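Translate sequence into structure tokens.
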Amino acid sequence: MVKIRVLKLSPEEEGKFFALSQGNEGFQKSVQELWAEKVSFPDWCFVLESSGRLMGRVGYMANPESPQEFRMFGLILPPGEENLSRGVFLLKESFSEMRIAGGRSFFYQLHSSSGTFPAGYCQALEGAGMKILQSKKRMILEGRNYKRRSQSRLEYKTVAEVGVPFFLEAIERVTRGTLDREDRASVFKIGERKAAEHYFNILQNLDSDLQNWYAGFKETSLVGLVVPQIMGEGQGVINYLGVTVEHRGSGYSRDLLGRGIKNLLRRGAKQITADIDEENTPMGRALVEAGFVEKERIIVFSCS
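Result follows.
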């Protein structure tokens, strides 16, 4: 009999969530930090058991900016086509429990670094009612491989110089007609202003140093935005980059990207990451020209 269990606060039950990743102390530490920060809890984590044997797990963390939105983490599904229904059972049952906890929307990012995704995961996620929201590429730049281009054609001002209200309006403007499907879905769901505020708050929670967030101008006209952020020692991320509708098609994403890369290198980044929608071919070309290489594919699943 397949049995799904909600982890309790006892050390014995918490340990079951980590048992399928024995030796991965980093994962355990990360999850315990989520619990300490109260964006996740042990009873938001589930294990799948069959005859007392652990076969799978999934955890959930809340989005502080949208309490009814939950991100899934630590997903392990039982291998083999014969276990597909068990994986679907784990997901459906955990969704039901999390809806009782107030969840309305669920998101999961499925990663592949080898060109193929784990067998059965797409089928199980779709079988549980999730749909593909977006397919992304994770691009990586080793700092020593940066292909510098000529001087930027833009002038830059920080959030401190232009003010938060201006920056929020700028996010609205660069999101219009975007090729990023997740951004389009967010605007469709909650509107331009709330989507801009939501994204601003997410970025600020990651790195609150607004001195490194830039708006780029051509004379007095806003061209675009770039938000380079440090996510760990030597690790930089281009977490946001967008060009206004009226300035697209002139290669300004390259100027903004260059500003972001130089900022991160100056702050000690040795490696820089950028995730882009697979449909955003202009940004993909700009990244490759700067020296980025594709390292991973990501599928974003969602359900409500």
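Note: The longest strand covers residues 131-142.
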